[in-house]
Amino acid sequence: MPIYKAPIEDFQFLCHEIFDVTNSLSAVDDSIEISADLLDAILIECAKFSEEVLLPLNQTGDQLGCKFENGEVFTPPGFKEAYRKFSEGGWCGLSSQKEYGGQGLPEVIQYMTDEMISSANMSFGLYPGLTQGTILCISKHGSEKQKEIYLSNLISGKWQGTMCLTEAHAGSDLGLLRTQAFSNDDGTYSISGTKIFISAGEHDMVENIVHLVLARLPDAPKGTSGISMFIVPKFKIDKDGSLGDKNNVSVGSIEHKMGAKASSTCVMNFDNATGWLIGLENKGLSNMFTMMNKERLFVGTQGIAQAEVAYQNAKNYANERLQGRAPDGKKSPEKSADAIINHPDIKNKLLFSKSIIQASRALSIWTHLNVDIAKLDNNADNKILAEDIEGIMTPVIKASCTDFATEITNECLQIFGGHGYVSEWGMEQFVRDVRITQIYEGTNSIQALDLVKRKLKIHNGRLFNSLVNKIEGSLTEINQNKELEFLAEPFKKSFSRLIEVTNWMIKNENSSPQLLSTISNDYLKLFSLVCFAWMWLLIGEKCISSSNKENRFYKSKLKTANFFMYQVLPLSQYLEGKIKTNNMILENITIDDI
Amino acid sequence: MPIYKAPIEDFQFLCHEIFDVTNSLSAVDDSIEISADLLDAILIECAKFSEEVLLPLNQTGDQLGCKFENGEVFTPPGFKEAYRKFSEGGWCGLSSQKEYGGQGLPEVIQYMTDEMISSANMSFGLYPGLTQGTILCISKHGSEKQKEIYLSNLISGKWQGTMCLTEAHAGSDLGLLRTQAFSNDDGTYSISGTKIFISAGEHDMVENIVHLVLARLPDAPKGTSGISMFIVPKFKIDKDGSLGDKNNVSVGSIEHKMGAKASSTCVMNFDNATGWLIGLENKGLSNMFTMMNKERLFVGTQGIAQAEVAYQNAKNYANERLQGRAPDGKKSPEKSADAIINHPDIKNKLLFSKSIIQASRALSIWTHLNVDIAKLDNNADNKILAEDIEGIMTPVIKASCTDFATEITNECLQIFGGHGYVSEWGMEQFVRDVRITQIYEGTNSIQALDLVKRKLKIHNGRLFNSLVNKIEGSLTEINQNKELEFLAEPFKKSFSRLIEVTNWMIKNENSSPQLLSTISNDYLKLFSLVCFAWMWLLIGEKCISSSNKENRFYKSKLKTANFFMYQVLPLSQYLEGKIKTNNMILENITIDDI
After folding, report:
1. Nearest-CA neighbor of A114 among A140, A101, A100, A95?
2. Pairing relationship of beta strands B67-69 and A265-278 according to DSSP bridges
3. Beta partners for A190?
4. Subunit contact A593:B556, Cβ cutoff 8 A
5. Is the pLDDT confidence value at A76 over 90?
6. pLDDT over threshold 90, residue B494
7. Of B297, B276, B451, B284, residue with least CA distance to B367
8. Phi (first) and psi of residue A57, to 5 degrees
9. Do the interacting molecules here have an ipTM over 0.95?
C-alpha cells in the first residue's frame, strides 16, 4: 500500500521561517488568535487524520468507486464514516466564519490541511473542498436569510454544496448554457435543465446537498451576461429550518472516469426544481467566480498534494529497490545490487519533482497568506496589493501546479518500472487521479487566457506591477549577499526575461488578434517558473543566512534550489523563443493544415 | 466510440515518395517480390481489418479485461474470434520466412501493419507482436529441429510465444535472476522459478504457448554471463509434432494494471517444467536480445500508433465541438459558437502532435527499411551501414516515440476537456494504454543508457558516424535549394549541436564516472529531436521540389515542418545547457538530499 507522511517540517519551515505567517497575520488583525504553537498543533492533528483515516481508504475507494443504484449514489465503503469523523473534528469549518460555527482560522492553514487531505485521498477531499466554495459564495452573495438557513449546516459539515455550471454543450463557454429559471408567485423560481460533470452532485455522506445552479431567466440577455445563480437544495427547507420535501432534483447517471473514482461525478436533472435566486439577476456568472476562484486555488493544491505523495512513494521505493550498481562505485557491496536511488537518472527524476513541489508549496502558502491579508487588512493599499497577488496568482497556481503534477506523478511512476503500471503499488492511481486537475474548474488553457487576457490587463496592468514590486522589494537584501549569487543570478536573468516578454506581448498584441491566445499557455508556464525560482531564492536566502546552516534540512534545500535554477529554470529561455515565433508560424496555418 | 482511419496517405507518401521503398529493396535483393501496388493493397487490407474488426473491440476489451479463473486466463469477448480471422488472413506470418509458411515480406511493411493494428487495438496487437520476437529468436538461435517443431506453428498463428525474463527482484537488472535449470538425462532441462510481468503468458487464443525462459544452469557464472535460454512450451510436443502432455507451467495470477487490460500480464510459475536449451549455455541474455531489439522497435511503433489514434480523435472532436469564438473573428457566425479547432491553443496542441507523429513515423519507416537492408544486402559495407542504423536507432525510437506518445495522448485528452476524463470517449484509455510503452522491453532510461554507454561506443563510435554520414550525404542536394533554407537552417544548427554535445560527452566522460548515466535521458531526447528534424527536412525537400507542390497534402506537410523547426526543435538548445550542467549539480548531491 502506498505510504504518506505529511510534510510537517516543510510546512513549519515555510510558515515560521520564510513567511512568518502568525506574526504577519497578527500584524494586520490583532483579533487573529493564532500562535505558532496552535498552527503546529493543527498541522499535526490533520496529518494524523490524513495518514490514519483517509490514506487507508484511498486505494479501496479507487477500486470500488461510487455506485449508482435506483437513483441513489453510494460512496465507497468507509467514506461516510470517515466523513462523519472529519466533520466531528471540526475540519469542515476550519477557515469559516465563527458566527456560523466555523473556527475562523486563516486560509493559509486551510491550504496546508487541504494539501494533506488531498495527498492522502484526493477524492475524499473534493467533497468538503467544494463545500468551501459554496460557503464563500453564500457568505458573499446570499441574503441574511439565506446565510442563516445554509451557512451553519454547511460549516458544521451536516450538509454539503456543489456548483452546477457545465451543460453538455456548454463547458468552457458558459455563455451557451440553456438551463431555465421561471419566477413563481411565492418568490421562488422553477429551474429546469440538465447539468453534467457535477462533482458530489449526489451521494450518501450528508442529509442535504445545496446546489448552486446557473440558469437563465426569461428575456435574459444572451451570453454570459444573462446568467443568474440559484440555490437549489436537494431537500427543501421548511420555515423552521428543518428538512422539508425532496426537491425535483435527480441524478441521471454517474460518470465512469479515468480516476478520482471515489468522487461522484453526476449528471443532474433539474425538473421544475424549486430554487432561490442568490445575488442579483444576471450576475450569476460573476458571482459564481467567487466560488470558482477559491476552487481554482484548491485544485492547484490537489496538484501539489498528488505530486507530493507520488514523490514520497517513489523516493521510498528508490531507497529500497535494489537493481544494478551505481556508476560511481558500489554503494552496498554486501548486497547483490545498489538501491536505485544511487542511479543518476533516478536522482534527476526525484530532484525535479522535489524542486517543483516545494517551490509550488511555498508559492501557494504565500498566495494564501495574501488571500488572508486581502480579507483582514484594514489598510486599503495593503488590501489591494494582496488582492492583486491573489488575482494574478490564481490562474498561475491552478494551471502550473497541476500541469507539473501530471508530469511529476508520471516521472515517479516511471521510477517503479513495471510495478508502477500495476495497480497494487498505487502509483498509477496518482497519475489517473491528478489528471482531472488540469481540466476541472476551467481547463488550464482557460487559466492561461485568464492570465494574459484578463489578469495582466485589468487596472492597467496593476496586478503584474504589484508582483514585480514585491519581487524587486525582496531583492534589495538579497543583492547584498554574495554567497547567494549562485541562485540570485539565474533568478534575475529569468525575472528580466519575464518582464521583457510581458512588455513584448503588450507592445505586439495589436499586431494580431490572436497573439495573446496563441502564446498564453507558454507565457503562463514561463511566469510560473519565474515565481518558483523566486521562492527558491527566498528559501535559499533563509538557509544561507541561518545560524544553523549546516543543518541537513537547510543544506538539502540549497542543493534543491541549485538544481532548480540550472536544470529547470533554463526552460524559460526556450519558452521565450517559442512565444516570440509562435504566432508567426500559426498565422500561416489553416484548419485544413492541422 | 473513438474513431480511427489508417493513415494510408502518409504511409504511401513516405514509402513511395520519400524512401522509394520498393525500388530500394529490389535493388538490394532482386528476389524480393514487392511492387508498389502490392504494398498499397496490403496497407488497404490491413487498414480494413484494423478499422472494422480490431477497433470495435478496443473499448470493450478495456472495460472487461482479461479474466483469471481456475488457473486459466480468458481474453475479453471477441478477441479469440478476431485472432482467428487475423491468423487466417496470414497477418501472423507477414514478414516471416517463406520456408515455414510466412509471406517473406519486408519489415518496413510489417512496421506499417503493426502501426495500424496497434492504433486500433494496442492490447490485441501485443499478442502476435510478441510472437514475432519468438519467431526471430528461434530462427536465429534454434537448432534445425527446434525450427522445424516451432516455426511453422508460430508463423501460422496456431501457437504464440512469450519472453520470460523478469523476476520480482530482477527487472532492469537481469543479472540478479534466480530461475534454475537442471540438465536431465534425456537432453531436456528442468526449469524452476517464478517470472512476473509475462505478457500473453497464458490465454485462450491459441492451443499452445511457447515460452522463451531465461534461467541459470548449476555452476553458471554469476551475473548476466551465467544466463541460458530455454524453450518451455505450455504443452510438450510429441515426436510426431502433435501436442503432448501439459508442461509444469502454471499461472499464479494476472496483474491489475493501469491499462492494456485486454493483454494478459501473468505471473508464471515453472515447477520442474521441461525445457530445451536454445543457443549456447550462458549465452541466453545476448540471444534474448535478438528478440528484445525487435520488440523495442515494436514498442516504439505502439507509441506512434497510440499517439496517432489520439490525435485523430482530438482533431475530429476539435472540428465538431463548438465553444467560444476564434480570437481572429467568428468562423461560423450562423452558429452559437466556433469549432474549437479555431482556437490557437488547440491548433498548437494538434500541430505539436502531428509534427512529432509524422516525423517519428518517417524515422521508423527509414529504420525498418534499414532492418531489411541489413538482412538482405549482400554487399558487406551496405549491410554494416544498415546494421549500424538499426542499432543506434532502436533505443532512440523505443524511448522517444513512447515518451512523446504519453505527452501527445495527454495533450489530445486535454482537447476534450471534461469529456477526455470520462471513459466513454476513449481518450483516457489511450493515455493509460500507452503508458506501459515507456516501461516494458527495458524502461526508457535503460534505452538511454544503451544509447550512450553502448551504441555510441561499440566499434569505436562507428554507429554514430554512420548516421552522421547518412545525414551529411543527404544535405548536399538540400544545400542547393534556397527555397528550403527555412527548414535547413534550423536543422543544421541542431545537427551541429548534436555533434558538438556528442564530442563534449566523449571528451568529458572520464572526468566523472557518472557523467554518461546522468545525462543519458536528455541526450537521447536531443538525439531524437535532431532525427525528427532531419525527417522533416527530407519531407520538406520532396514537397518543395514536387511538381505538385500546391497540393493540400504537400502544403500542410511544409507548414507542419515549419512548426516543428521553430516550436519544437529549439528544445534542443535547452537540452544542451541542461546536459552540460547536470553532472556538476548532481555530483554535489547525496541521497539524503533528495
Report:
1. A95
2. unpaired
3. A182, A274
4. yes
5. yes
6. yes
7. B297
8. -90, -5
9. yes
Sign, Cα dihedral of B521, B526, B530, B532: positive
Catalytic position from the list A255, A295, A387, A441: A441
**What is the 3 state secondary structure string of A254-277?**
ECCECCCCCCCEEEEEEEEEEEEE
pLDDT, mean of residues B241-245: 93
The model's pLDDT over B134-170, given as tens digits with 9 standing for 90+, comes to 999 999 999 999 999 999 999 999 999 999 999 999 9
Interchain pair B406, A410: CB under 8 A: yes
Q: What is the mean pLDDT of residues B487-491?
A: 97
Contact across the interface for B197 and A418, Cβ inside 8 Å: yes
pLDDT above 90 covers a percentage of chain A that reads 95
- Average pLDDT rounded to a whole number, residues B522-535: 98
CB-nearest partner of A173 from B324, B520, B588: B324
Query: Is the Cβ pair B563, A571 closer than 8 Å?
Result: no
Q: Is the pLDDT of residue B449 over 80?
A: yes
Cα(A503)–Cα(A508) distance, integer angstroms: 8
Tell me the C-alpha distance between B557 and B257, whole Å: 38
What was the pLDDT predicted at B477? 82
Which of B256, B422, B577 is opposite residue A255, by nearest beta carbon?
B422
Cβ–Cβ contacts within 10 Å for residue A331, how many?
15
Alpha-carbon span B491 to B2, nearest angstrom:
36
DSSP designation for B71: T
Residue carrying C-alpha cell 543479472: B175
Residue A265 has pLDDT above 90, yes or no: yes
- With contacts defined as CB-CB under 8 Å, which chain A residues touch B178? none
Q: Which of A257, A428, A516 sits opposite B421 (nearest CB)?
A: A257
Q: Looking at residue B43, what is its pLDDT?
A: 98
Using a CB-CB cut-off of 8 Å, the residues of chain A touching B594 are: 315, 341, 347, 350-351, 354, 556
User: Is residue B51 a contact partner of residue B120, using CB atoms and an 8 Å limit?
Assistant: yes
User: Are the C-beta atoms of B7 and B360 separated by less than 8 Å?
Assistant: no
Tell me, yes or no, if A441 is annotated catalytic. Answer: yes
pLDDT for residue A42 is more than 80 = yes
Nearest to B581 by CA among B528, B525, B531, B512: B512
β partners of residue A181 = A191
Contacts of A421 in chain B (CB under 8 A): 257-259, 435-436, 439
Chain B environment of A406 (Cβ under 8 Å):
410
Q: Which residues of B are catalytic?
A: 441
Instruction: Determine the distance in angstroms separating the CA of A419 from the nearest CA of chain B, rounded to an integer.
Output: 9
Q: Does the pLDDT at position A243 exceed 80?
A: yes
In whole angstroms, how far apart are CA A506 and each of A59, A496, A510, A516, B219? 48, 15, 8, 9, 74
Quote the minimal CA–CA distance from B299 to chain A in Å: 14
B492 C-beta neighbours (distance < 10 Å), count:
17
Least confident of A343-347, A548-552, B333-337: A548-552
Please determine, for residue B589, whether its predicted confidence score (pLDDT) is greater than 80: yes
**B207-to-B155, B164, B203, B554 alpha-carbon distances in Å:** 14, 19, 9, 48
Q: Does the pLDDT at position B411 exceed 80?
A: yes
Phi-psi region of A517 (alpha: psi -120 to 50; beta: other; left: phi over 0): alpha
Q: How far apart are CA A464 and CA A389, in angstroms?
A: 8
Task: At B466, list the grid cell.
Answer: 554512420
Q: Given an 8 Å threshold on Cβ–Cβ distance, is B585 in contact with A573?
A: no
Burial of A197 (0-12, 13-18, 19+ CB in 10 A): buried
Kindly list the residues from chain A whose CB atom is less than 8 angstroms away from the CB atom of residue B223. Answer: none
Q: Rounded CA gap, B129 and B91, in Å? A: 11
Query: Averaged over B293-301, what is the pLDDT?
Result: 96
Chain B residue with minimum CA distance to A559: B589
CA distance A529 to A307: 17
Whole-number mean pLDDT of chain B? 96
